[in-house]
Design goal:
- The protein has 474 residues and is α+β, with helices and mostly antiparallel strands.
- It has three domains: 2-90, Beta Barrel (OB fold (Dihydrolipoamide Acetyltransferase, E2P)), CATH 2.40.50; 147-218 and 248-265, E3-binding domain (Dihydrolipoamide Transferase, Irregular); 269-473, Chloramphenicol acetyltransferase-like domain (Chloramphenicol Acetyltransferase, 2-Layer Sandwich).
- It is 26% helix and 22% strand.
- The protein is built from twelve helices and 19 strands.
- Helix 10 packs across helix 11 and helix 10 packs across helix 12 (452-467).
- The radius of gyration is 27 Å and the shape is globular.
């Protein structure tokens, strides 16, 4: 029998760590190769991680709710396959003595180093001696490095409460991370937390934080008074008898933070346009079976996305982003399509949507939506969006005013599409009351760079494109 390491995967180039949110298997359970073993959460996406090999789950090394660096061993599978080479490779990174095997490494390291236990008490002396690998080591090494007496240094506590990206932002703005309230699991400081803290003008913490990036644990006691200023505590609400209290999930916390930050960042203005989808409805009815035979569900949303992608190329200010006092006009047209999940909201992105046919867009929307619901998305598939479409109309909403998905400058809300009475013009110029397939489109835009005239011109052309959608384009 051999044991295979199960590691925390790297879910994208910019992802340095992940939170193990749920175990789908328990010790002693049989697992098949590629069968989901556990769920992870990153700053970008939730995903199920498959087993690298078949066998029996022998050990669980990382518990639910823990955040660890990528490549950290989270479990071991006992298997008959004779591939156990992965086991020694992981501990070899943090362990200084090469000859020592993985499990006994901590105890053997502690024995020859008799001065090792005393350093944590004075805190200053150990930094120069064992620290050469520690400051340059990644969070991966820190996560697996044994502590001589179980004590945590200030630097290690900082690493456990934040990601490398958060620490980089804090260092650039000279922010003391101990003063930033964390909304992540176990009080971790997320990217949104540090950005919100900076937005509140709380970045002017004493000059002492400059020493924080240096591996000197003594810097921590110098800032005991920093956590309290300018941190508005939310008003407490007591649960009444019979109430059910449910803590927010990670995705709910991220969504809440993102929405509040967006409202505070952008000057939201809304434009409402009524769309006559009768032409689209006719084309859809004629093409729906053909698309279904090719495994694609042809929805109204695909028509809307197709026309919007074409118009974004003609109206670049709606496909832009704000950077300080400058405007970034995006060259790519990447449509974010909001997907409502039982546990929250996620926005996968259709890349280069302007280059896709109606079939291509419909297929991409179907695929991303299904994989979002089954937690199969990768972080890359929820990044680099330039414009977002949200479709609450599928639940019957007539119209709504969506919040911009930062750092974009506009979002389109789709209302319910139904047969409704409408005034139609007869060939002889007279008017009559008829039945048309109609619905509302609402554009929320950032008035800092998108003027009302720009927004309405964009929407007028979207309206015209949908109402006169060419049958040949389907």
């Amino acid at each position: 029998m051999a044991k295979i390491d199960v590691i925390m995967p790297q879910m994208g180039e910019s992802i340095a760590e992940g939170t193990l949110s749920k175990w789908l298997k328990q010790v002693g359970d049989a697992v098949k190769r590629d069968e989901p073993m556990f769920e992870i959460s990153t700053d970008k996406v939730d995903a199920e991680i498959p087993a690298p090999s078949g066998g029996v789950l022998a050990e669980i090394l990382v518990q639910e709710g823990q955040t660890v660096a990528v490549q950290t061993v989270v479990a071991r599978i006992e298997t008959e396959a004779g591939a156990a080479a992965a086991a020694p490779s992981k501990p070899a990174a943090p362990a200084a003595p090469a000859p020592a095997p993985a499990p006994p490494a901590p105890t053997r390291a502690a024995a020859p180093k008799s001065p090792a236990p005393p350093p944590p008490a004075p805190k200053a002396p150990p930094a120069p001696a064992p620290a050469p690998p520690a400051p340059v080591a990644t969070a991966r090494a820190t996560a697996s490095m044994p502590q001589p007496d179980g004590a945590e240094t200030a630097e290690e506590r900082l690493r456990q409460r934040s990601t490398p990206l958060v620490r980089k932002i804090a260092a650039e703005h000279q922010v003391d991370l101990t003063a930033v309230p964390g909304t992540g699991i176990a009080g971790r400081v997320t990217k949104n937390d540090i950005l919100s803290y900076l937005d509140r003008g709380a970045a002017t913490v004493p000059q002492a934080p400059v020493a924080a990036p240096a591996p000197r644990p003594t810097a921590a006691p110098a800032r005991p008074a920093a956590p309290t200023p300018s941190i508005p505590a939310p008003a407490g609400v007591d649960a009444w008898p019979g109430d059910r209290v449910e803590p927010w999930s990670r995705i709910r916390k991220l969504t809440a933070d993102h929405m509040i930050m967006s409202r505070r960042t952008s000057a939201h203005v809304n434009s409402f346009f009524e769309i006559d989808y009768s032409q689209v409805a006719q084309i859809r009815a004629g093409k729906k079976r053909e698309y279904a035979e090719r495994g694609v569900n042809l929805t109204y949303l695909a028509f809307i996305a197709k026309v919007v992608a074409e118009q974004l190329r003609r109206h670049p200010v709606v496909n832009a982003a704000v950077s300080g006092d400058a405007t970034i006009y995006r060259n790519e047209i990447n449509l974010g399509i909001a997907v409502a999940l039982d546990w929250g909201l996620i926005v996968p992105v259709v890349k280069h949507a302007d280059e896709l046919s109606l079939m291509g867009i419909a297929r991409a929307i179907n695929d991303l939506g299904e994989r979002a619901r089954s937690k199969k998305l990768t972080p890359d598939e929820v990044q680099r969006g330039t414009f977002t479409i949200t479709n609450p109309g599928v639940f019957g909403s007539y119209a709504g005013t969506p919040i911009i998905n930062q750092p974009q400058v506009a979002v389109l809300g789709v209302g319910s599409i139904k047969k409704r009475p409408a005034v139609i013009t007869l060939p002889d110029g007279g008017d009559a009351l008829g039945i048309r397939v109609t619905g509302m489109l609402v554009l929320a835009y950032d008035h800092r760079i998108v003027d009302g005239a720009d927004a309405d011109r964009f929407m007028a052309e979207v309206q015209s494109g949908l109402q006169a959608f060419p049958e040949g384009a389907a």
